[in-house]
Every structure is written in C-alpha cells, then in structure tokens.
Amino acid sequence: MLPSVLSESCLEPFRFYDGHQVQEAVFVQKAFYRYVASFSSVHRQQAYDTSISLANQGCHTLLTASKVGYRLWVDVRCQDNSCHNSCPQDSGLCQVRS
C-alpha cells in the first residue's frame, strides 16, 4: 500500500501525553497519527520505503512533506510496537522519536 503524502503546511501538529511521555501527533481524516521519524529531502526514497514497510506490517502511515524533508507518522491505534520503531536508527538517514 502506498503511503498518503500531505504538505506539512496543511496540518496543525499538537502534543499529547500517552501515559509515558509527551508525543507529537496530527489528526487527519478521522485518525490520529503519532510522529515517528524525520528524513532529509535527499532521503525521500528511504522515507517512502520505511512507510511502505510499516504499512505491510499492518500500520496505517502518513508522510508529510516540507521544503527540508519528510516526516513519518503512524496511526496511534497501531498496537504493534514494531510499527513505532522500524526506522533504521543506525543508518543516519532519519531521526527517530521514541
């Protein structure tokens, strides 16, 4: 499944407390998405590949695009913790939020 891609300027991120820490999220089409990772604009393909990989694991994903790069968001209803931790942290391609 291909990820939904929206302009970041169309969204209004907000913060919420999930019982353990403060998270950043957006509300899109009746769903809440939690911020997971950022990718620089030169790593666009990595952003898409990571989003598709998460979607193949059953997580609904969203990519937002800006002039500086891409941000990956995962539906907060995704209970599989791997959906929130699948970005290759050691690759240097993205910054992961825990």
What attributes does this structure have?
disordered C terminus; mainly beta; 98 residues; Phosphorylase Kinase, domain 1; seven-stranded mixed beta sheet
What do these coordinates show?
With 98 residues, the protein is mostly beta strands. It has one domain: Phosphorylase Kinase, domain 1, CATH 3.30.200. Helices cover 13% and strands 41% of the residues. The protein is built from one helix and seven strands. It has one helix at 44-56, and strands spanning 4-7, 14-17, 22-28, 31-40, 61-65, 69-75, 94-96. Strand 3 and strand 4 form a beta hairpin. It is globular.
> What overall geometry do the principal axes of the alpha carbons give?
globular
- Indicate how many domains the architecture comprises: 1
Query: At CATH's second level, what is the architecture?
Result: 2-Layer Sandwich
User: Can you give the helix content as a percent range?
Assistant: 10-25%
User: Number of DSSP helices?
Assistant: 1
How would you state the average pLDDT, rounded? 81
**Rg, alpha carbons:** 12 Å
**Proportion of β residues?**
35-45%
SSE map:
Elements: E1 4-7, E2 14-17, E3 22-28, E4 31-40, H1 44-56, E5 61-65, E6 69-75, E7 94-96
Parallel strand pairs: 1-5
Antiparallel strand pairs: 2-3, 3-4, 4-6, 4-7, 5-6
Quick structural gist:
The chain is mainly beta and 98 residues long.
